[in-house]
Structures are given as C-alpha cells and as structure tokens.
Write a structure and sequence with these properties.
Elements (H helix, E strand, L loop, with lengths): L6 E6 L2 H4 L7 E18 L10 E22 L3 H11 L5 E9 L4 E8 L13 H10 L1 E2 L2 E2 H14 L5 H16 L1
Parallel strand pairs: 1-5
Antiparallel strand pairs: 1-3, 2-3, 2-4, 4-5, 6-7
Helix pairs in contact: 3-5, 4-5
C-alpha cells in the first residue's frame, strides 16, 4: 500500500460516499482525474441477485474527466482489517488499484480505489440509458433495492456539489419510471 506509515487512504466513488461503514480518522471531498463513474458493473450479491443482477458503479478510463468522491484516511492499526472488510464488500468483480487523489483541502495523496474492469465476471458494460434505468428500478438484493443505491448516490453527489451527468440522467429516468407505477 502506498500510503504513509501512520495511515492509508481509500477513495470512495459509489456507496462508500454515503455508507462508508469503515473506521477512518479523516474524510474529505476528493477527485480522481482520468476516470468517469458508470453504472456498468453487475451486482449479484448486494443490489441484485445472480438471476437478476442490479447495476452499481465502477470507474472507466476517461482522459480529461474528473470523478469526484470521498477520500478516507484509515489508521494504521486497522488498515489490514479494513481492507479485508472492503475486499469482502467489493468481492463481486472489484480489484484494488493505486490512485493519486486531489484533496479538496489541498494537496494530493496516494490511495487505493476499487475498480471493476471489463474483464471481471460481473461486468455488464454500457447499455441504452432507458435499459439501465429499467434494470436499476426493478433490481433488489440482500443490501436493498438498486433504486435506493442510485438515489442515495445522486443525493450524496449533490451534497458534495459534484455534477455527474451519467448518475443524474439515470436518476431522472428511474424517477420517471417510478411515477408511471
């Protein structure tokens, strides 16, 4: 882990923003350059089921783009346990990657970020927005509805004053579906 001797940083860009559920000594708004957040990862274990997967976010390379999320500093005495917990939480196709983050209060840090790449077993990839919205609206799993995940993420991004066209377009479309039902 490329972090200081007294702590490690992790970057959250999905549910870690609004539900970190990890011990940390500091948190702040952070940005990661060169990536976009997309609902292209299948969720067979949290927000969907194996036979009816939901969709959760992953990061995709996007030169010139900036993904805003949260950085969490994890104290050294719980780093190992925390990353074991995160490995379990992100077990459905995510892998740890090194990333350089820009912190909102200034400076940069090396961090770990979980990314589900195109080669993992649960990767669903791009689809028309209407199809993504329908899948998210109808999916649910042990951690709750996929709709809740999307709405909580959109709300958290607004609180961070972070515009994400992909997330907000999906939110709009899913709320339109909800009005129809």
């Amino acid at each position: 882990m490329s972090n200081s001797a007294d702590s490690a940083w992790v970057f959250g860009y999905g549910s870690l923003i609004w539900n970190p559920d990890i011990p940390y000594t500091e948190s702040c708004r952070a940005s990661l350059t060169g990536y976009s957040r997309r609902f292209w990862q299948g969720s067979h274990d949290h927000r969907g089921l194996p036979e009816k997967p939901g969709r959760v976010v992953t990061l995709v390379p996007a030169p010139g783009e900036i993904c805003v999320g949260m950085a969490y500093r994890i104290p050294c005495d719980v780093v190992r346990d925390t990353f074991e917990q995160l490995d379990h939480r992100e077990k459905n196709g995510y892998q740890r990657h090194q990333a350089r983050l820009d912190l909102s209060h200034g400076g940069t840090v090396d961090s770990l970020v979980y990314i589900a790449d195109t080669q993992n077993f649960a990767y669903l990839g791009d689809a028309p927005m209407a199809d993504l919205a329908r899948q998210i609206y109808h999916a649910a799993g042990p951690s709750g509805s996929n709709l809740h995940y999307l709405l909580a993420l959109a709300d958290a991004l607004r609180k961070l004053n972070a515009h994400d066209e992909h997330v907000f377009e999906l939110e709009y479309r899913v709320l339109q579906i909800q009005k129809e039902h």
